[in-house]
Design goal:
The chain is about 40% helix and about 15% strand. The chain is an alpha/beta fold. Strands 1, 2, 3, 4, 5, 8 and 9 form a seven-stranded mixed sheet that branches. Strands 6-7 form a two-stranded antiparallel sheet.
């Protein structure tokens, strides 16, 4: 056994040196644009999150140009009405949406890579950026929850991108996280496949409920999704949380393309 341990002690540094040499000779390409990845270690909050979860570096390859292109809106433009088209008799009128990034450029390239290229680590990076922005804007809550995927889509994809964004948000804000608070009551079509607002409303109306295992009475909850367009999905998720007794719900999306400013920030 002593010989084996001695052998391991010699071989391990050799393999580390070999790995560093290979990385120098054959550098990885950026996961988003394909250029050479040269931004390792530039986002320390993300690296800390990855190491706390896995004990290892992230292994995410991204270039400095893509990373530096992730520029948020000015603070006063991040607060919006959740619904792009508010309607009469809304059970939760004036619901607030926090959305700090535009859905264009690098973000628009990255979101399909996360979902269909199965790159949850990229979603974790977005979550760290989102959490840092929420913290800088002094947002406080009791709990962070993701918008759940349908069971069929979760099985197909293998992970929920909203969960992978929401986890580091909770970690950076220093508050609780759970992915079993909200549940889908039925499978729904992708909102992006529907054109009319009425179809989008019908698609997600009543699609969520809060778990009876949680007592949410009086809680302030942040509900997180990757992208907001019309806001109907986040609106229905927030409605389910309000019906379960939440005092306040803040809808949060990493990105979107609306600038209908909310009158009263969260």
């Amino acid at each position: 056994m002593a010989h084996i341990n001695t052998f391991r002690g010699v071989v391990s540094p050799v393999f580390s040196l070999l790995k560093e040499t290979l990385n120098f000779m054959f550098p990885e390409n950026c996961i988003i644009c394909g250029r050479l990845s040269d931004a390792a270690g530039r986002f320390t909050q993300y690296e800390r999150f990855c190491e706390s979860r896995t004990g290892k570096p992230s292994g995410l390859n991204i270039c400095g140009k893509c990373l530096s292109s992730l520029v948020p809106y000015d603070p006063d433009k991040r607060w919006l009405l959740c619904l792009s088209n508010p309607y009469e008799d809304d059970p939760v009128p004036g619901l607030t949406l926090y959305m700090p990034m535009a859905y264009d450029g690098v973000v628009k390239k990255a979101v399909p890579i996360i979902k269909f290229g199965k790159k949850p680590k990229l979603a974790n990076l977005f979550g760290c950026i989102l959490g840092s922005l929420l913290k800088s804007d002094s947002v406080h809550a009791d709990l962070v929850v993701p918008v759940p995927l349908s069971s069929s889509r979760l099985q197909e994809r293998g992970f929920n991108q909203a969960s992978e964004i929401a986890r580091p948000v909770a970690d950076i804000l220093g508050i609780a996280y759970s992915d079993n608070v909200l549940m889908r009551t039925r499978n729904t079509s992708r909102q992006t496949e529907l054109t009319g607002n009425l179809d989008r409303i019908a698609n997600v109306t009543g699609a969520f409920k809060a778990s009876e295992e949680w007592d949410l009475t009086g809680m302030t909850v942040i509900v997180v999704d990757d992208v907001a367009t019309t806001g109907f999905t986040l609106h229905e998720a927030a409605l389910a949380l309000h019906e379960a007794g939440c005092r306040k719900v803040l809808c949060v999306a990493f990105a979107g393309n609306r600038l209908a400013k909310n009158k009263e920030p969260f």
